[in-house]
Amino acid sequence: MTTFWRLYARSPAAVAGLALLILVIAMAMTAGLLFPGNPLELAGPPLIWPFQDARFPLGTDNSGRDIAAQIFHGARISLLIGLCAMALAIAIGIVLGALAGFYAGLADDILMRITEAFQTLPNFLLLLVLVAVFGSTLPTVAIAIGLVSWQAPARLTRAEFLSLRTREFVQAGRTIGLGDATLIFREILPNALPPVIVYASVVMAVAILLESALAFLSLSDPNVASWGNLIGLGRGVLRSEWYVSAIPGVAILVTVLAVSLVGQGLNDALNPRLRRR
Amino acid sequence: MRILALAGRRLLSSVPTLLIILAGLFLLLQLAPGDTVDALVAQMGGGDQKMADELRRFYGLDAPVVVQLGRYMWRLVQLDLGYSAIYGKPVANVILERLPATLLLMGSALSFAFFAGIALGILAARRVNQWPDTLISTLGLVFYATPSFWFGLMGIVVFAVKLAWLPPGGFETVGAGYAGLARVLDIARYLVLPTLTLALIFLAIYLRIMRASMLEVLTLDFVRTARAKGVAEQAVIVRHVLRNALLPVVTLIGLQAGTMLGGSVVVESVFALPGLGRLAYESVVQRDLNTLLGIVFVSALLVITVNFVVDLIYARLDPRIG
Fold it and tell me: Mind telling me how many Å the CA of A26 is from chain B's nearest CA?
């Protein structure tokens, strides 16, 4: 564990990313303590500038809701959606990629056709369609984002499986009579996982960006304090009170940056060939 | 010639993919609550059930799903994209009206992201681990993490509201009656911010890939040989390293074509551009099934075409292929 931490800490960017991520998680966890009650409740006069009023450190938006409260509660939403969508995408991707890579042949062809179909279709369009069909509640949005993000993990897993299935330990497993399922999930998968786990951070970063884009277009859950919702709201007062859109955007930037840096740090730490940097 | 045959074969194999996409989407959209007639009736300000049923019969929406799908596929083979109930025009016309704006936006964003990304990636790789590299890599990372619509909005605040250098939205100056070069320059002025916004994340990606690719190629044997021969560093980079380092970036263009189309939905919304992206968003909201499927068809065609061109370029760059 300490060697892993030492490898990880070699890159200052990765450590900075981890610090930022911890900051965002802290924001999410203390949201209930620092800003109790519903963040979408009216709190004061509308359109107060940040740093003017001690009650509203980050100002208020068009309707008079506390921006700081929305930022803190929004951290919960973004992290939650990012994690759930990522988990779903990785789960689907691993299962499909494992099946395609292990069985090869016809199963591989069919699954690759489906993956190609999903990749030819712009994934944001598919996301729009899914949200239109199944609604805009938070769980639906998370599932929809997961459903459009599984292609790359599937390809990664498939590539790993294709190269691992011919190794001796697989042959040994077959010789002692292990079934296919056992071979896939207990023998090969633990070896195939590292690149996929690292890619999970990219999936999470993209999921957060996708959710904020949906919220901006008013297609995400309007009853939660999402950062994208706030940016969309601030569009109406962009000329004068541009801080309403600016502040949540910075929050999104910091979160996605943190997740990306942590992912890169994990990649560098786990990849023994990257000693050059 | 072999290149053409190879790329052509990949093109042909995309046809079943296209059909899968369309059939899948058609079936998926049947699950949507409310259909075109509901949206039409809402637009008309309400109507009774009889009128709704009559409209459904007119548009053929009362037939069973399988029959509708069959009819749609049959019309598609004849390249008839159907009729848009919301716009009152054939879908093909609606799409053709909006296509130029999107193509222009995507084309300029792709070119900018490609050339700027490559240039910055080369620069970063040349000065690896020194301050230009750190600066460029950090910028790349920040651009990657920036939500594009937020960048667009901030761009509007800075350049259109505060500085008034660029227009805040729209495609060209309405009613000015420009023609020829004046019109081109006018449209170019309107497209500066949208292009930068759309190109942002792809710039970051190409930058990173180009830098990594250059670093990898610079360690290969033939580069060492060229330097030993006494070739100037500039010539080594341009004539030997570049061609090899470009390969991953070119492949990436093909893979990211679809993502760029998705990104144009948001950018067109922010800057009020009359393009396909916004049309797709409106079709989803208005349940205009035919238009949405038409857009999906056209965008899939676009992605397949871009992949075809990328295949050709790739074969041209890498003599080992074809």
Answer: 20
